[in-house]
Amino acid sequence: MAALLRARTSIWKRLDLSSMMQAAIGAAVETTGLDTGAIYLLQENVLYLGATTPPLPAEFPDTLRYANAIEHPHIMRAIDTESPVSISDLSGERLTNQERDVIEMRGLCSILYVPLISRDRPIGVFMVGSVGSPRAISDADIDASRTLALSIALALDDAHLFDSLMNRSDSLEASVRDRLTALADEAAVFAEGDQIAHVAKMQQRIRQRLALLQIRDELLREDIEEARAAHSTSLSVLEGEFATTQALLIDARNESAAFAAGTGEWDLLENGLDHALDHLVRHACHIEGDPDVSVSDDVLGADIDTALLIYRVARGLIEIVCARDVTAHTSVHASLDDAGMLRLEVSQPDSGTSAHSFNASLTSRSLERVRGRLRPAGGEMEFEQGPDGTRATVILPYFSAA
Q: Based on the domain organization, do 205 and 330 belong to the same domain?
């Protein structure tokens, strides 16, 4: 908490984009206790390296700061899922050549990618990692990084707005100078021809033009003041969000709402379990049409805690089942069995992909994470992988809202 408070102060006292990003990545490294970090901004399919810690040398070529986003799938996974991606030991991870170049250049052994989301759109990602030896990335590290990402994304928006206003101010100032020079030259030409009346008219035009430019300058100053006021208001909003997050971290039962905006759970709260699962499968499996999702009417009557548990468990099962091929057909079904127990099944038929491409280490970690979430709720899990495909089934007690 103390590190997050210091991070917020360090980030929000800057409006310059470059210095704000440098302060932000330094704060991320301090908050997580890791060794190094970097911020990438995303525009279309291009990643831009905005800042690192330790900082890059001043003579570092700008051309080397750009990278094709497709060549960095771990970054894009964090952005696409709007969730942090952690790798405690990079030695056994499958990497692209471009990812391996970055990791070897900085000597990384563990890494955490955290997406930066602003107004429901991705604007980049920050990454922090350990150097020299692997380090376990805890849930506390991930939770702190989620909270810090809210501050960084909001500060990036304000810094972009401030840069835009400053550019407009510089452009207007240059336009004023050029126009005044042109008018003065024109007036001088007529004065030399002893055109006294025309000179007086030109002087009047200059005065009118100056008055107009003064009005435009005042309007621009008002824009800047509004931006500063918005910056201050955003800080107040962030303080409220931070206080709420702090309270929710203390109250374990409300943990699900703390980061709901970053995980898609607001969709569940607002539109229901069936709509949220549809959106989850469509997003995770890149489906254009309607996904194969069915939720029985009796399950739709679950209380909110049970619905949130179903949603989180389904998200974990999709990650496990889709580890072989995220583009293959994936189905999700939720219903009650004859004993009144909830049965949640996520399956994917064999797509012809070699079993060697299945990341056993990732699947094992994901299975353990899902089982750990089920144990307090009295749930059980079965996982099957064979020639016909992959299936994960969860059975747990059911509580309705009725």
A: no
Q: Do residues 358 and 277 both lie within one domain?
A: yes
Question: How many angstroms separate the CA atoms of 41 and 52, rounded?
Answer: 12
Q: Provide the angle, in degrees to the nearest 10, between the axes of the packed helices 17-32 and 2-12.
A: 170
Parent domain of 274: 264-396
Can you state the percent helix, strand and coil of the chain, rounding each to 5? 60, 20, 20
* Residue 279 belongs to domain with CATH number: 3.30.565.10
144 and 44, same structural domain? Answer: yes
Candidates 116, 141, 140; CA nearest to 35 is 141
Residues 215 and 290 in one domain: no
DSSP class of residue 302? B
Query: How far apart, in whole angstroms, are the C-alpha atoms of residue 163 and residue 310?
Result: 44
Of 304, 316, 320, which is closest to residue 280 (Cα–Cα)? 316
Does any domain span residue 252?
Answer: no
For residue 229, CA distances in Å to 1, 187, 223, 263 come to 27, 42, 10, 30
DSSP state of 71: G
Please say which residue of 158, 188, 217 terminates a domain.
158
- Tell me, yes or no, whether 285 and 303 share the same domain: yes
Give the C-alpha separation, 387 to 111, whole Å.
34
CA–CA separation, 115 vs 244, rounded Å? 21
Which of 130, 158, 186 is the last residue in one of the domains? 158
- Other Cβ atoms less than 10 A from the Cβ of 243: the count is 10
Rounded distance between C-alpha atoms, residue 117 and residue 128, angstroms = 17
Summarised one tens digit per residue, pLDDT across range 266-278 is: 666 677 888 888 8
**How many domains does the structure of the chain reveal?**
3
DSSP H helix total and E strand total for the chain: 13, 11
pLDDT in tens, 220-279: 677 677 766 766 666 666 666 656 655 554 443 334 333 333 455 566 667 788 888 888
Same domain, 26 and 116: yes
- For residue 127 the two structure tokens come to 């990454």
Q: Looking at the structure, do residues 213 and 360 belong to the same domain, yes or no?
A: no
Backbone φ and ψ for 38, nearest 5 degrees, come out as -155, 150
Whether residues 75 and 128 share a domain: the answer is yes
Convert the pLDDT of each residue in 22-45 to its tens digit: 888 888 888 888 999 999 998 888
Nearest to 38 by CA among 47, 48, 25, 27: 25
Q: Which residue has the tokens 């435009």?
A: 216
